[in-house]
Amino acid sequence: MKLFVLYTGYLETDSGGIIAGSSGQIRLPILCFLIQTDQHNVLFDTGCHPNAMAGRWSPKITGSFRLVQQPQERLENQLALCGVSPEQIDTVVLSHMHFDHTGGLYLFPEAKVYAPKADFTAAQVRVRINPDPFTHGGYCKADLDQSGNVYTLLDTDFSLLPGIDVVQLPGHTPGLMGLIVHLKNQVILLPQDCVYTSANYGPPVRRTGSAFCWTSYHASIEKLRRLQQQTGGRIIFSHDFTDFLSLKRAPEFYQ
Ligand SMILES: [Zn+2]
Fold first, then answer.
1. How many Å apart are CA 34 and CA 16, to the nearest integer?
2. Residue 231 in 3-state DSSP?
3. Rounded distance, CA 201 to CA 223, Å?
4. Fewer beta carbons within 10 Å, N or C terminal of the chain?
5. Residue 197, CB half-sphere, CA atoms under 13 Å: how many?
6. Summary count for the chain: helices (H), strands (E)
7. Distance 253 CA to ligand 1 centre (A)
């Protein structure tokens, strides 16, 4: 089994939204992960839509986040570095339904998609109950209109494939899923927006600017900490540029 880190550009935003109490601008890498087994190509998260800044995202989102993505950082080009075409992705796991995780879903109309039940439901209701995108928070209706996929909505921990575990880590959003990948030589934990950066992880835990539920946010980070201690694994932080610079990037891989 191989794990590839796919870098799909970065977001620039107010640091206070990422680490509460901080100030200035911060750059957030947008990471997706390809996990290759003998029989499957599993993609974890799909990044931002390449037309995000050209009308795909609402002014509410672009007012707070600026996507910077070079052509070679588009998801299909990152997959090509691994020798994989979008058609070869049979399984997509979405950590949650925010705009920087669902934007590439259009590339995989045939894939089976796993998503967190509570967040999928909340997102679909939120973008449909009121047409004004200013009420949609971090959800992009155009991404959520993507249809044709067969979805499996999860609300419990789940063994996706041998060596690939889905864990429920809500708090940032009503539902959120991380992956634990048991490679031959190491365990890698991918909590995505459960914990943006190593500064948020602590200890002590530092909050983000906002969250769906702080009780769940803290409980999920402590669940992650227990899993990290039990497995001795490495956490890859979803939006931590310093951590990102220490990673092997596609076409290199972890095994
Ligand atoms: Zn998010």
1. 30
2. helix
3. 12
4. C
5. 21
6. 8, 12
7. 25
Structure confidence by residue, pLDDT tens digits, 23-44 = 999 999 999 999 999 999 999 9
Domains of the chain by range and CATH?
2-240 (3.60.15.10)
pTM metric for this prediction: 0.97
pLDDT per residue as tens digits for the range 188-245: 999 999 999 999 999 999 999 999 999 999 999 999 999 999 999 999 999 999 999 9
User: How many angstroms does the Cα of residue 151 sit away from the middle of ligand 1?
Assistant: 20
Helix spans in 37-116 (H): 59-62, 75-81, 99-102
Closest Cα partner for 155 from 174, 139, 168?
168
Neighbours of ion ligand 1 (CB under 5 A): 98, 193
Cα(172) to ligand 1 centroid in Å equals 7
Structure tokens given for 143? 């991404």
CA of 28 relative to ligand 1 center, distance in Å: 12
DSSP 8-22: EEEEEEEGGGTSTT-
